[in-house]
Design goal:
Length: 397
């Protein structure tokens, strides 16, 4: 069977299963009126050092428009060096990203509530969001070590400020058999709405009680979790179903995965979502979607989704871009953020890869120029109706 026929059969199989799961095939649509232009990429080889510390594992990125700097979180579990995030400068002044256009200017160690670096293997930091004067960071935890996931706020010099409550259904279960997060498939993403009223995170794949991990024939039912920033409490959850793994590995026992790796909020009902599919011997497929929560069921009251999915309306996904069409060698892209506004009014979109500190991989920063109505809305909303959420009552401590 040739590769073309095989690809067609995989697509047909995935489409049929999606219909069976979602009932309504219109939940998946294709965008045709949005333009993405590649304006550059920068590669840092594995082993690159900044102030004698290896730079790598960059799983999330966020932007400070006032300071015109970016903050990127490393998923180093305090094993190569203490858990940390980096401050980056990305020069888009010429509306392009040149080979020397990214500079790391600072490294910030994360300090726990005792003012100490996090012990080795006590966290797995993955997502990051900028609040205006601090960063929010999500950790997947570690099921094998009974380390729970967390979402915490840190000052820009790394000191832990506050923690957010994590619902029980997302907690780590050592046996990983009947309940809770799956190891390394938990709270991978983090994003604030432009008005900072809401914070979103999501599981990379299904909770154990919700369903299976993604396979070449079926996606995985993830949960998107929303926090109300005025109360600091989780208030809504939504069903998100990933695509199936794009291409199966040659040998079924080889490592393979597709997951929801980052979110970028446009407003309280619309987000961008990044999915990364990987199979050993095949490589990465990276897809960017636009999400609508408008018609999605709220599922925070459902502790176990198995047996319920066929009756639920998931988040609506619209495919915006398959990054493999950019004709780049793609690494493990896991983070995205808006960047600066370009001279022609388009918005830059920054994507970053987690090299897993693997010598066969690399840290990759890709910049796209984007023209879409939601970008203009986003730019406007940043200056309207924003809140200083720490002034609100009942914020978690």
């Amino acid at each position: 069977m040739n590769a073309k026929v095989n690809s067609i059969l995989i697509l047909i199989c995935g489409w049929l299963i999606l219909i069976a799961i979602l009932i309504n095939p219109s939940k998946m649509t294709l965008a045709t009126d949005i333009r993405f232009d590649l304006i550059g990429q920068v590669i840092f080889p594995t082993g690159f050092l900044f102030e004698e510390t290896e730079v790598g594992g960059l799983s999330g990125i966020t932007y400070s428009p006032d300071q015109q700097v970016y903050y990127a979180i490393s998923d180093d579990r305090s094993s190569k060096a203490p858990a940390r995030f980096y401050t980056l400068k990305i020069d888009l002044s010429s509306d392009t990203l040149s080979a020397d256009g990214v500079n790391i200017i600072d490294e910030i160690t994360l300090l726990n509530s005792l003012g100490e670096p996090f012990p080795a293997m006590s966290l797995d930091p993955e997502g990051i969001a900028f609040t205006g004067d601090s960063v929010l960071i999500s950790s997947e935890g570690d099921v094998q070590r009974s380390q729970p996931p967390f979402i915490k706020e840190f000052s820009l010099d790394g000191q832990e400020i506050r923690s957010f409550p994590i619902p029980d259904k997302f907690q780590a279960t050592v046996e990983e058999k009947e309940w809770g997060i799956r190891n390394n498939l938990a709270l991978e993403s983090l994003t604030l709405t432009p008005d900072q009223h809401y914070l979103f995170t999501a599981t990379e794949n299904a909770l154990v009680q919700d369903g299976k991990t993604a396979s070449p024939t079926a996606g995985s039912p993830c949960r998107i979790l929303r926090y109300n920033m005025e109360t600091g409490q989780p208030d809504q959850e939504f069903l998100y179903i990933t695509d199936p793994i794009v291409t199966a590995p040659r040998f079924p026992t080889n490592f393979q995965i597709n997951g929801l790796v980052d979110l970028l909020a446009l407003d309280e009902n619309h987000l961008l979502a990044l999915e990364r599919s990987f199979a050993l011997g095949v490589g990465n497929t990276i897809k960017l979607f636009k999400l609508s929560l408008d018609a999605a069921d709220r599922i925070q009251g459902i502790d176990r989704l198995q047996g319920e999915i066929a009756d639920l309306s998931p988040v609506r996904k619209t495919l915006l871009l398959n990054l493999n069409t950019l004709n780049l060698r793609l690494d493990n892209i896991e983070g995205l953020t808006w960047g600066s506004i370009l001279s022609d009014g388009r918005r830059s979109l920054i994507l970053i890869s987690d090299n897993n500190f693997n010598s066969l991989q690399f840290t990759q920063i890709i910049t796209l120029a984007v023209e879409m109505e939601e970008v203009r809305k986003y730019s406007k909303k940043r200056t309207e109706n924003s809140i200083s959420y720490r002034k609100a009552g009942n914020y978690p401590v």
